[in-house]
Amino acid sequence: MKKVSNKPLISVVVPIYNVEEYLDKCVQSIVNQTYKNLEIILVDDGSPDNCPKMCDEWVLKDKRIRVIHKHNGGLSDARNAGIDIAKGEYISFVDSDDYLELSYIDFLYDNLVTYNADISMGKQYVRYPKKTFNTGTGDIYVLNSHDCFDKLLYSEDFDVSAWAKLYKTILFNGIRYPKGRLYEDSATTYKLIDKSNIIVLNSKPIYNYIIRNNSISNCIFSEKKMDLITSTNEMCNYITEKYPDLKQGCDRRIMYAYLSTLTQLVKSKKTEKKYKIELMKYIKNNRSYVLKDKRIPKRDRLGLISTYLGFKSYKIFWKIYSLIR
């Protein structure tokens, strides 16, 4: 391994809110990285638990750690606060209830340098309480923005998550995460991809994504869940205007947003009738066209077919799919 002085400074931004049970493991996995020239930015987003004190204690343990204490503004606002003060030539994001493989930064940086890329991506382990899924395929892609979008729109290895990625910090000039919106990465990552000349994905799992009962993805359904559709529409309008040949992929991605939001409604303890009507209306009006696309994932195809028998049929499909998965 080269000396620290021979490698550029990399900023790691960690937004923190109400995660005292997970925080130490997360920060320890960053501190212990094999890549040492790090600036670790812990952003306490007005956390009501013991996290603010824990952040201050970490500063005393490692001089590379900086802490921001701020009023609660949500995940996007916390990430933006970290971006605003980041000094690294490159930047990465870690959710504070997740943790990293120890070679995470080295792996992403080496791929970025090897392929002269602007964004380097990896994959993740998805860790449920009793089971872990490996999302890696072993494939390596070196793509321009257009071809990256083509795969992302069909969920072919690429995703819009902020984490498991290393970015040139300069990409964030003029770009920030939308404050107050859920699924903020769907509204942001595509802008960073489009500013990039080369994107590399080495689909090895290097990030540990933790599924917990009180996470955003498992809350009771609310109007904010519709943010995924808003962000996806913005992304697809942008892509279609710049790359008209990707319209079919955009139609698939929008349908995915509707199905994903419908799934959140299915998983909720309380069904909101007006959202069910709105979601099912769009799916009914557009499913036959999307089903003609041979590239849509099998899960989407089966889910769409189940909606021909109505919402209850989709609910049964999702329960069966979840059990099999």
Question: Which helices and strands appear, and what pairs or packs with what?
Answer:
Layout: E1 10-16, H1 20-31, E2 38-45, H2 51-61, E3 65-70, H3 75-85, E4 90-93, E5 99-100, H4 104-114, E6 119-127, E7 132-134, E8 140-143, H5 145-153, E9 165-168, H6 189-194, E10 199-210, H7 227-242, H8 247-267, H9 273-291, H10 298-306, H11 311-324
Parallel strand pairs: 1-2, 1-4, 2-3, 6-10
Antiparallel strand pairs: 4-9, 5-10, 6-7, 6-9, 8-10
Helix pairs in contact: 7-8, 8-9, 10-11
Structure description:
Helices cover 43% and strands 18% of the residues. With 325 residues, the chain is of the alpha/beta class. Strands 1, 2, 3, 4, 5, 6, 7, 8, 9 and 10 form a ten-stranded mixed beta sheet that branches. It folds into two domains: 207 residues, Spore Coat Polysaccharide Biosynthesis Protein SpsA, Chain A; 106 residues, no CATH class.
Poorly predicted parts:
none
Radius of gyration equals: 20 Å
Alpha-beta classification = alpha/beta
Under CATH, the topology of the largest domain can be stated as Spore Coat Polysaccharide Biosynthesis Protein SpsA, Chain A
Give me the strand/helix succession: EHEHEHEEHEEEHEHEHHHHH
Q: What is the CATH class name of the largest domain?
A: Alpha Beta
Count, helices: 11
Principal-axes geometry comes out as globular
**Overall average residue pLDDT:** 94
Q: Tell me the total number of β-strands.
A: 10
Strand content: 15-25%
Q: Please tell me the CATH architecture of the largest domain by its name.
A: Alpha-Beta Complex
CATH-level-4 superfamily name of the largest domain = Spore Coat Polysaccharide Biosynthesis Protein SpsA, Chain A
Number of domains: 2
Distance between the termini: 40 Å
Helical residue percent?
A: 40-55%
Reported for the largest beta sheet, the result is: 10 strands, mixed
